[in-house]
Every structure is written in structure tokens, then in C-alpha cells.
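Lab notebook, design round three. We kept the backbone fixed and only want residue identities now. Task for the bench partner: fill in a sequence for the structure below.
Input C-alpha cells:
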């Protein structure tokens, strides 16, 4: 923020008052004089007026934090991510500023309800799922820990699509989240950056005879930054999320205009504006589209140039580049921004005139890479030919990086050409590709996975060759979630109950939840009663939402069994559906002794091109239709598909869940973070030995966790001789379930529509080996049902799950990144 440098000290801005009266005056001012509305207006305008009121009250801290972070000697981190799934802002800022009460009161006197106003805010859905939500939780924790961390991303005009369900099928609608304006963002055109595409490299010798490269004849695009405040929890620290918007250059119309094609040249503006138009809606799959590579370079180049611009202002005269890596560190969220490696080299070589070895030393001391998945379909590879057209100068640099790297490999393993070709940044073959993960590893000083198992598998499998070369680069940072949004904000009743017992400090230091453990004991009848009442109230709130969105009645006395996450074969929503069909069979067979009634909720978006995932959504809806309309089933079993699962719906769903479904094929879910949100909110988990489930199990104890299924090594050992029929032959329950599917019981009017699903389950090459875990899943679910019969036991387990969730705060995660990778000092505003 601000074009301030050290020699131009600014007056600190005065903080504005946050009394009920001040808030009410400011709100009225914005509503009437700024927005031109009267007191009888709709919630959207009231939301805008209140957001502007609060933004004013964030501004002084925002400027002070920003100035403090620009001081000489302050080391800073830049979190580079193509996704920030931030959701709504208003309630979050209110919580962090600690002024919900007076805001609510101020609104009431003007006949507005805070809740209605909050509902008017569109989710900022600038991400697909876990990876994007993680970035948002990280920013929250960094601001709370007063770490000088800035987020850099893209201001997509269309975020994650809105999912509608039509005749049981997913329909995608564009999410024009900026239509009513975004009161939280501040446009800063004065810090725009120019981004080059196309053209070619020109080499010439400079006066001293040195060969210098120049990237010429480019088609340029302008990146305009929009800043969003990231408030810390009650600490007056406000960090920044800077999102880039793409637009055409002014001059770029002129040539064509002179040639007489004014309309064509104006139309050509589109290709520049397109870069930040839309988020690619694929989770854990590579996109391979030209526009996506443009987005990646656009973010990398704009952000690096912006960091260099700010950092150079620390110097009176010539910047001392030997200090750069001392002052700056970039954390790359997956391989998406990995073109940074080559872009930082390009700027240092071509624009700052550094020698290769000096530039490379800076790059490899300031970049760090987080891997998010082992799935081969997610590993980014770009055709060399695409690089040649779009980023020719960066391709030159990548080739040079690679040839120097391969020389080092051949020195370490002389004559091992096999290894060289395995490790090369360039994949040879009929179509040559750039392997972005290899570029990230070669260019980074730190490479981390996101849960203990995942980080081990990286070293043993995918990145083994690199681990053997540079073991010291590899480390684990188990993910987390922010307890501000995911407990304090989304579960006010539980927050109040916990705070009444142990004070409020746990919100800043989640390990203090340990103090709740003794309260789980049976003699604490009052606390346990209150705990139950809180869950019951949260279930009622969720049931109301389910009724409204799914038109299905959930009885709050039943177990709320929830699986919400992106729809993907590896996450095995299918296994969940098979279990629901099995329960349905039990009811139909009268096998209902000691029945535990269940309301099963499944939600999530499928990538629009992922046909099997879309079939799974249809299947869930078809099974739900049959079950929910069978009078014999009644309240014993309900199934609902929750449409348009997003951050603000998770804020209602997690507190209302009894059972959290975390049932991925072992070895496939890198970490998961939904699992942590449920645990914090007192749900019990049924899960495989995968990702952070393992650490959840260790934290809460196996007696408080429902574990099932093959382990990662068992999955891999079975893969080559997996025969689904074997599992069917020996399992009458599975036979019954598959028979219902095969005979079209759930799709009598649409025959054959589930054939692809059935075939995938029956395929000996099914990578997710769903049927191999069916028996163990169904048996463990029976234990879940049995435990539900003992409500006292369930409450104990629920309390212990929340009380053991302290490790899964992103405050802990950020502390570890800082200790091991970033080495930042806290800076207060
Ligand atoms: C937490 C969260 C996710 C990640 O869920 P997983 O179960 O870890 O895949 C995805 N989407 C939203 C909206 C979330 O809040």
C-alpha cells in the first residue's frame, strides 16, 4: 500500500471510532451520500454501506502495517497462488476487529439485521477446493501471527461456477461475483505492471563485449493490482492480498487503428482482458490450455516485478542484489506459479544485468515450493511448442537451467543417462514437454508436502531421484485450517461454551483446547449437556438449510453423516453411496434391530469436463429420490445432495455434522482440510489411513476414530492382482448393492445411465479400488451405528475430538513454515 519509501515518512493515519454511534453515522453516510439509497433499501446496499464503514476502520491499521513491512531490514514472504478461496469477508472482519456487538446494535436501530446483510455478500470463490481454501487460511493465520506475508493471486471476474442441480444433473452457471461491486478491494492502477507475451529473443554484445538477450516484438498486457485487507485477530495488524486484473495496453490499439481496423483492434482488447476472466474449474487435474499458461505467467511476472519494484525503493541509489534473497522469499502454492523460477532469472539477467551464477544463487535462495498431490493427472506439463510461441525467452532460460542441472546430475551419477532423462526438466518424446514440478524442485531451496504420509511418499516415490540428490531440501508441513473462520465465526455457540470454561485465548492458541479434555468426563453433566445442546442447535440450523436447498427433511435426532468436498473418484463418494444403498437394503429386508437413523448429506462440485464425476452426482440424486420417497424407509434413512457447496455453506455444514466422511483411497488424499474443520466442530471421523487423517487419529486416539480400509502399502501391493469379482463373490451385501444398481432400481426411467460407474467399479484396473474397501467400510459403519446407540459415549468422543484438534490450526502450520522456511520476524502495525 501507498508509494511510501523510507525517506518519505508519512503521517500515521488516525484510527476511526468503532462505537455504535460512529458506526451508525458512517453507515448512514455511505448509504445516502455514497450509494444514494434510503433506509428502506435492500440488503445488498446495506451490506455495501456497512462494508465501507468497516473498511474505513481497517484503513489506519492497514497503512501502518504496510509501512512497517517496508522498512529496511524487514524480510518478507510472498504467497503465490492461482487460487484464494476466501468466501465472505464481512463477518470475518467483524470477528477480527471484535466489534460484532455494536455493529449489530447499530444496524438494529436502523431496522436492518446483521445476518441478512451478511447473506447479501457474494462468496469470493476464487478457488476450486482445498488448495485455494488453504491459501486463505494461511493468510488469516499470518495476519494473526503478525508475519509480514503478502498474498498474490488473480482477480478472476468469474470465480468457481455456481452449481445447480437440474433433473439430478449438475448444471454450471457463471459466478459473476463482482456484479454488485466489491467494497473490500482497492484498485491501485499506479502500481500496474507490463507483462510480455510472444515475440522472440534478440542477442547482441554490449559495450563490454558481453552477450545480452532482449525479448522483443512482444504483445504486452497490463496487470492492475486490486488490494484486499487481511485482518489479524484483534491485533491491529492488516496484511494484504493483492489480486491482478488484466487489461490491454493503451498503445496496443493504435497500429491497427491506423491500418483502418478500429473495430478489430478494440475487439482484440478481449484477448488481454481474457487472462483474468475466469478460474479454471479443475481440481487436481492439469488443464493443458494455453490461456491457463498465460494466467500462470501473468501472475508470476506481475508479482515478481511488483516485489522488485517495492524492494528497490529501500535503496537510495543502486540496489544491492546480493541482499535480495536475504529480504524476500516466495512460497509457490503447487506448481501453478512455477514459471517464477524462469521469470525471476529473466529479470535478474536481462533487466538487472546480473551474471548467471549470481542470478541463479538468488533464485535458489528465495523460492520455495509446496507440492499438493501425487496424482499423475495433476502433474503439470506444458508442450515446449506452446512455450516457444508464448514465452520464447523463458524457454531459452529453462533450457539453460536444465543443461546446467543435468551436468550436475551426471557428475553425481556419471554415465547414468536413464536417470538424467528421468530427472530432466524437459520430457523427451514425440511431443516435448516442460515438467513444471522438476523446474520447481530445481529452482527451490525448500520442497514440502502437506501431511506426514504425503511428504514421505514424495521422497519415496514421485521425487525420489531428487530426494537422493538434495535430501536437505525436503520437509513436511501438515496443513491446517484457521480456527477464527472455522470455529469462532461459524460456531458461535460452541465458541461461547468453550470460552465460558477456559477463557478466550484458545482462539489465538488452539493447543489450549487440551484444557477441554477433562470436561468430557461423565461427572461434568452440565458441560456435556450444553455440548449436546450446542450440537443439536447447529444440526437444526443445518437441517433448515438442507430443507431450503435440497427440499429434504432431516430429523435432528438422526445421525448427520456428511461428505462434502470436490467430487472425484479418488475421494470415493461412490463408496459412500454403496453404503447408503446397503443401509437401504437392510431397511427393506427388515434388518433394523437397534437401528441408528441417519441423514446422509453429500455435496461438492464436479469439474465440468469430468464426466464420471458428473455421473456420480446424478447417481446420488437418483438414489436419494428412491430412498426419500419410500414410506417404509421414513426417518430411518435420508439422503440429500447439497447443491453449490462452497465456503459459506461449509460454515453451516461443519458445525452441524455428527460424522465426517474422509474415505479416500489410501495414498491419494495429500492431506485434506475438510477433515480438520469437522474435527474442530466435534464431528467423529470415519476415515482411511490417508493424508492428515493419520495425524487426526494420532491426536485423538484410535478409540475415538473410526478407521477402515487398506493402507497405502497394501493398496499398492494389491494393485497388480486386484480382482473386483473376488470381493463380490465373498460378500452378499456387496452383491445385493450391485444387483440393485445393475437392475436399474434407481434409474428405471433412464436405463443404462450408470453403466460407466458400474464398469469403473468392476474394472480390475480401477485405480481407486473401491470394492476392495467395501467390506471393511460397511463393518466400520456398523460400529459407528452401534456407538450412536450409546449417546453418552458419542458425546464424550465428540468433545475429545474438538479438544484434540489444536494441532490442526494454521497458526501452527504457519509457525512451522516460518521456523523452517521463511525465517521472518513478526512486524506489528
Ligand atoms: C475445506 C474445503 C474444501 C476442502 O475439503 P477436503 O475435504 O479437504 O477436500 C473444499 N471446498 C471448500 C468450500 C472447503 O471449505
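Proposed sequence:
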Amino acid at each position: 500500500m501507498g508509494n511510501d519509501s523510507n525517506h518519505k515518512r508519512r503521517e500515521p493515519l488516525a484510527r476511526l471510532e468503532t462505537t455504535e454511534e460512529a458506526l451508525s453515522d458512517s453507515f448512514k453516510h455511505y448509504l445516502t451520500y455514497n450509494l444514494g439509497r434510503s433506509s428502506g433499501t435492500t440488503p445488498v446496499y446495506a451490506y455495501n454501506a456497512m462494508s465501507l464503514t468497516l473498511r474505513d476502520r481497517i484503513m489506519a491499521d492497514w497503512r501502518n502495517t504496510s509501512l512497517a513491512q517496508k522498512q529496511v531490514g524487514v524480510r518478507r514472504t510472498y504467497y503465490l497462488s492461482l487460487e484464494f478461496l476466501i468466501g465472505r469477508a464481512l463477518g470475518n472482519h467483524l470477528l477480527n476487529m471484535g466489534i460484532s456487538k455494536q455493529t449489530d446494535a447499530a444496524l438494529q436501530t436502523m431496522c436492518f439485521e446483521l445476518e441478512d446483510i451478511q447473506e447479501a455478500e457474494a462468496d469470493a470463490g476464487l478457488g476450486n477446493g482445498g488448495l485455494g481454501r488453504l491459501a486463505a487460511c494461511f493468510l488469516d493465520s499470518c495476519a494473526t501471527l503478525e508475519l509480514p506475508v503478502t498474498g498474490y493471486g488473480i482477480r478472476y471476474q468469474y470465480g468457481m461456477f455456481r452449481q445447480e442441480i437440474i433433473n439430478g444433473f449438475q448444471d454450471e452457471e457463471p459466478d459473476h461475483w463482482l456484479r454488485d461491486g466489491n467494497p473490500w478491494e482497492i484498485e491501485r492502477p499506479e502500481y500496474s505492471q507490463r507483462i510480455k507475451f510472444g515475440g522472440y529473443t534478440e542477442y547482441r554484445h554490449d559495450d563490454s563485449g558481453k552477450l545480452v538477450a532482449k525479448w522483443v516484438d512482444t504483445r504486452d498486457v497490463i496487470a492492475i493490482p486490486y488490494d484486499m485487507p487481511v485482518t489479524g485477530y484483534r491485533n491491529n495488524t492488516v496484511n494484504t492480498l493483492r489480486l491482478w486484473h488484466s487489461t490491454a495496453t493503451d498503445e496496443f490499439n493504435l497500429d491497427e487503428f491506423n491500418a483502418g481496423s478500429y473495430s478489430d483492434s478494440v475487439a482484440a482488447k478481449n484477448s488481454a482482458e481474457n487472462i483474468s476472466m475466469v478460474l479454471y474449474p479443475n481440481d487436481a487435474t492439469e488443464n493443458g490450455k494455453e490461456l491457463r499458461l498465460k494466467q500462470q505467467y501473468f501472475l508470476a511476472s506481475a508479482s515478481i516485478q511488483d516485489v522488485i519494484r517495492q524492494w528497490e525503493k529501500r535503496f537510495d541509489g543502486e540496489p544491492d542484489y546480493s541482499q535480495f534473497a536475504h529480504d524476500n522469499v516466495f512460497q509457490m502454492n503447487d506448481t501453478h506459479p512455477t514459471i517464477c523460477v524462469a521469470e525471476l532469472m529473466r529479470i535478474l539477467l536481462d533487466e538487472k544485468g546480473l551474471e548467471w551464477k549470481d542470478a541463479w544463487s538468488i533464485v535458489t535462495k528465495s523460492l520455495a515450493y509446496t507440492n499438493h498431490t501425487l496424482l499423475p493427472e495433476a502433474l503439470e506439463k506444458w508442450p515446449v511448442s506452446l512455450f516457444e510461441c508464448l514465452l520464447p525467452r523463458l524457454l531459452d532460460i529453462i533450457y539453460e537451467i536444465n543443461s546446467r542441472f543435468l551436468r550436475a546430475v551426471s557428475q553425481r551419477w556419471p554415465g547414468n543417462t536413464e536417470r538424467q532423462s528421468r530427472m530432466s526438466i524437459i520430457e523427451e518424446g514425440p511431443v516435448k514437454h516442460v515438467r513444471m514440478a522438476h523446474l520447481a524442485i530445481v529452482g527451490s531451496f525448500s520442497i514440502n508436502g502437506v501431511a506426514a504420509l504425503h511428504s514421505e511418499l514424495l521422497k519415496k516415490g514421485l521425487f525420489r531421484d531428487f530426494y537422493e540428490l538434495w535430501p536437505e531440501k525436503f520437509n513436511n508441513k501438515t496443513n491446517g485450517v484457521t480456527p477464527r473462520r472455522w470455529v469462532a465465526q461459524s460456531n458461535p455457540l460452541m465458541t461461547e461454551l468453550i470460552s465460558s470454561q477456559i477463557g478466550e485465548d484458545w482462539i489465538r492458541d488452539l493447543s489450549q483446547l487440551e484444557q477441554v479434555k477433562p470436561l468430557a468426563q461423565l461427572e461434568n453433566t452440565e458441560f456435556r449437556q450444553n455440548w449436546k445442546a450446542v450440537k443439536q442447535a447447529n444440526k437444526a440450523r443445518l437441517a433448515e438449510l438442507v430443507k431450503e436447498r435440497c427440499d429434504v427433511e432431516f430429523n435432528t435426532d438422526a445421525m448427520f453423516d456428511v461428505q462434502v468436498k470436490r467430487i472425484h473418484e479418488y475421494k470415493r463418494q461412490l463408496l459412500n453411496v454403496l453404503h447408503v444403498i446397503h443401509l437401504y437394503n437392510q431397511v427393506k429386508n427388515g434388518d433394523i434391530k437397534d437401528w441408528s437413523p441417519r441423514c446422509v448429506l453429500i455435496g461438492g462440485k464436479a469439474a465440468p469436463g469430468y464426466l464420471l464425476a458428473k455421473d456420480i452426482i446424478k447417481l446420488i440424486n437418483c438414489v436419494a429420490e428412491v430412498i426419500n420417497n419410500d414410506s417404509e424407509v421414513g426417518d430411518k434413512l435420508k439422503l440429500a445432495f447439497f447443491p453449490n457447496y462452497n465456503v459459506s455453506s461449509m460454515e453451516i455444514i461443519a458445525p452441524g455434522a455428527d460424522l465426517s466422511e474422509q474415505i479416500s483411497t489410501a495414498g491419494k488424499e495429500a492431506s485434506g482440510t475438510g477433515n480438520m474443520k469437522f474435527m474442530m466442530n466435534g464431528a467423529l471421523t470415519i476415515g482411511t489411513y490417508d493424508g492428515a487423517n493419520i495425524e487426526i487419529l494420532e491426536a485423538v486416539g484410535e478409540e475415538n476414530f473410526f478407521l477402515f480400509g487398506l493402507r497405502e502399502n497394501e493398496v499398492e501391493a494389491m494393485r497388480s492382482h486386484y480382482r473386483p469379482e473376488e470381493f463380490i463373490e465373498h460378500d452378499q451385501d456387496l452383491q445385493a448393492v450391485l444387483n440393485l444398481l445393475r437392475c436399474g432400481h434407481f434409474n428405471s426411467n433412464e436405463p443404462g445411465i450408470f453403466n460407466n460407474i458400474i464398469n469403473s467399479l468392476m474394472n480390475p484396473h480401477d485405480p481407486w479400488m473401491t470394492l476392495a474397501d467395501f467390506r471393511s467400510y460397511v463393518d466400520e459403519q456398523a460400529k459407528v451405528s452401534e456407538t450412536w446407540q450409546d449417546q453418552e459415549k458419542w458425546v464424550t468422543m465428540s468433545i475429545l475430538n474438538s479438544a484434540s484438534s489444536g494441532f490442526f490450526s494454521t497458526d501452527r502450520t504457519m509457525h512451522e513454515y516460518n521456523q523452517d522456511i521463511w525465517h521472518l520476524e513478526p512486524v506489528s502495525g
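Keep this in mind before ordering anything: The pocket of pyridoxal-5'-phosphate is lined by residues 129-130, 133, 565-566, 646-647, 650, 672-674, 677 (CB under 6 Å).
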